[in-house]
Write a sequence for this structure.
């Protein structure tokens, strides 16, 4: 397998979904290594000598190498088990405490996650007792599709819908977005798509926020699930990297802006009514004056 520095950069970029950054000597060690296994071993030796490297930097370093390795591996089986294997290969020995015991296994409790794009609110994730059932259903439905018979736009919308559903289930306690991204890349490659994975390097936050917005609704605030951002991401990934990503906005800010527009519109109409009434009153006064004369 080729030792691909660009793929390692993709790995670093994907770690950005959790605001992780590599250690100061990461790139130096990567360039001095000749393969992924050697790079990971050299990084682990480096941590033994430099105790200033924190756990988040270690996670970013090791997982970046493993992401690069996985997205270049040709082996892939389309199944929920593949998600487990990807998760295990990415995070084994990386997480600490209880999280490390759950690597490669579905979570055993329900979760919420504060999202900046939602002003701290959380998507509703799958019930931990039904994770296997949810995934089995979605994978079986996906197997029924024939992408070869679809138009490009249909391919984009279908893969966007499937990946959105898998992510919303959130089967793992931690590392779901990175696992989902690697799975998506491998699945698309298996189907024969030629991808420029640099989009995951440069727009990993956009990818995560697009997944969030595709699975969040707040009826009282007039906010519905919006998959258009995720469609935009996959169109750029699968069709043409020169396409512009759709400008993303916090749905609550859009709601406030729309409310302000409504208020301005009502205010304008109210002023028009007042103006009309004032004009009518003045006209009547002038008419009465003429009659008196």
């Amino acid at each position: 397998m080729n030792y691909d520095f660009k793929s390692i950069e993709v790995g670093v970029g994907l770690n950005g979904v959790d605001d992780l950054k590599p250690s100061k000597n990461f790139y130096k060690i990567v360039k001095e290594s000749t393969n992924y296994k050697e790079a990971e071993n050299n990084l682990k030796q480096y941590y033994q000598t430099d105790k200033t490297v924190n756990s988040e930097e270690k996670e970013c370093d090791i997982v970046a190498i493993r992401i690069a390795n996985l997205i270049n591996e040709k082996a892939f089986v389309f199944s929920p088990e593949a998600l487990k294997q990807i998760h295990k290969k990415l995070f084994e020995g990386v997480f600490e405490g209880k999280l490390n015991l759950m690597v490669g296994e579905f979570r055993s409790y329900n979760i919420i996650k504060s999202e900046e794009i939602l002003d701290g609110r959380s998507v509703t994730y799958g019930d931990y007792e039904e994770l296997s059932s949810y995934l089995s259903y979605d994978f079986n439905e996906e197997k029924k599709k024939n992408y070869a018979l679809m138009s490009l736009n249909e391919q984009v919308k279908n893969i966007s819908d499937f990946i959105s559903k898998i992510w919303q289930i959130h089967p793992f306690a931690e590392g779901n977005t990175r696992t989902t991204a690697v799975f998506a890349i491998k699945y698309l490659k298996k189907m024969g798509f030629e991808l420029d994975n640099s989009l995951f390097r440069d727009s990993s936050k956009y990818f995560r926020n697009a997944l969030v917005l595709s699975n969040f609704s707040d009826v009282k605030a007039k906010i519905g699930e919006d998959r258009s951002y995720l469609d935009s991401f996959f169109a750029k990934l699968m069709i043409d990297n020169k396409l512009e990503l759709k400008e993303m906005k916090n749905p609550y800010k859009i709601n406030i802006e729309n409310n302000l527009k409504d208020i301005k519109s009502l205010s304008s109409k109210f002023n028009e009514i007042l103006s009309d009434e004032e004009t009518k009153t003045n006209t009547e006064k002038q008419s009465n004056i003429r009659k008196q004369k």
Q: What stands out?
A: Residues 251-292 form the longest helix (42 residues). Confidence is low (pLDDT under 50) at residues 259-264.
